[in-house]
Design a protein that fits this description.
Blueprint (H helix, E strand, L loop, with lengths): L1 H34 L6 E5 L9 H8 L2 H5 L3 E5 L5 H9 L4 E5 H9 L5 E5 L7 E5 L15 E4 L5 H12 L8 E4 L3 H9 L5 E5 L2 H4 L5 E5 L10 E5 L1 H6 L1 H20 L1 H12 L3 H12 L11 H13 L9 H4 L14
Parallel strand pairs: 1-2, 1-3, 6-7, 6-8
Antiparallel strand pairs: 3-10, 4-10, 5-8, 5-9
Helix pairs in contact: 2-10, 2-11, 10-11, 11-12
Length: 340
């Protein structure tokens, strides 16, 4: 017994000391982490991140530390196929801010979801085209009657723009079947496999794959400028973290200014951040400078109403939008407020 007791003490006491030291180390780590401000990663959501030019200001802002300079350390971007998926990502995120297609934001608001619009993201459809295979007999929108067309997702910009194009040509929406592919690359795969007759496409994919498809119609040829994406958040997040929102919008505004000031430098950042081909990135960014794709954040009532009217025409908007209750300009830089 004595030998066992001695043996037990010799084994147990060191273990107790190790356990005590481990607990002390954990406590020290917790204390250090607690003392570091903004230790938690700040991630936001941006529709079609890395696939389209919608998120270019965030890529530039991250690279140039504009967000840090404005007071928030954004460490990551959550991408999605667009539409309602992006809205859900935003509303579920601890840092509940992101950019989403106009139609998806309006649909979510109509469903009673807790959101408020705090900035305009993009305000042109110049990057959007509808493409088919080179050997296809589809030559016009009229040729798509009775056919299937791939969009990214319901309520997405790709669906809204396509429906507006149909309306512009007086083609009933019901005459063409829309298939949700889940994203632009997936839509093109469906096209190549013959599952659809045409697919919506945006830059830079339209530049990257220019030799593989034939353009049926370019949106810029038949549609005027209009709001195409919003920055949204929850009312709860806006109330609890107004400074974070102001920092995000200030950083984004600085990034947009930087893109217009030096498009080639912005293209180089997209090459680095998104692995774009250098020549493709340069052309894609330059193509969007003229139509001023990226808003600095301010609201243009004419372009808002133009986009809303398009939703009304296709039956997606049953009542007028109360912009005053949906939009809150107060988080924008002061000189961008009062545009409503």
């Amino acid at each position: 017994m004595a030998g066992s007791e001695v043996e037990g003490r010799n084994v147990t006491q060191p273990r107790r000391r190790v356990f005590a030291n481990w607990r002390m180390a954990v406590a020290c780590c917790a204390a250090i982490l607690a003392s570091v401000p903004n230790a938690r990663a700040e991630e936001i959501s941006v529709t079609q991140w890395g696939q389209s030019l919608y998120g270019a200001p965030f890529a530039v802002g991250l690279e140039k530390d504009f967000f840090k300079q404005a007071g928030i350390d954004i460490t990551g971007i959550i991408g999605s196929g667009g539409g309602g998926t992006t809205v859900r990502n935003i509303l579920a995120s601890p840092t509940a801010y992101g950019e989403v297609a106009f139609a998806a934001a309006i649909a979510a608001a109509q469903q009673g979801l807790d959101l408020v619009v705090v900035n305009v993201g993009t305000r042109t459809i110049a990057e959007s085209t509808l493409v088919t295979m080179p050997n296809s007999d589809i030559r016009s929108l009229e040729d798509l009657i009775g056919k299937k067309v791939a969009i990214t997702s319901p309520k997405s910009s790709s669906e809204l723009i396509f429906i507006m194009e149909l309306n512009q040509k007086n083609i009933p929406v019901s005459k063409v079947t829309r298939i949700a592919a889940g994203g632009y690359p997936a839509a093109l795969t469906m096209l190549e496999q013959g599952a659809v007759s045409a697919a919506g496409l945006i830059e830079p994919l339209s530049i990257i794959r220019a030799s593989r498809y034939r353009t049926v119609i370019a949106a810029r040829d038949i549609l005027p400028p209009m709001t195409t994406s919003f920055g949204i958040t929850t009312r709860a997040f806006a109330k609890e973290h107004p400074d974070k929102l102001r920092a995000i919008l200030a950083g984004r505004r600085a990034a947009v200014d930087a893109i217009y000031a030096d498009p080639d430098a912005a293209a180089e950042i997209l090459v680095k951040s998104w692995n774009f081909d250098p020549a493709v990135a340069k052309v894609a960014v330059q193509n969007m400078i003229g139509p001023k794709m990226w808003s600095r954040g301010e609201f243009d009532r004419v372009e808002l109403d133009r986009a809303a009217n398009s939703l009304s025409l296709i039956g997606e908007l049953k009542t007028s939008i109360d912009w005053k209750s949906l939009v809150d300009e107060s988080y924008l830089p002061k000189d961008l407020q009062g545009k409503m």
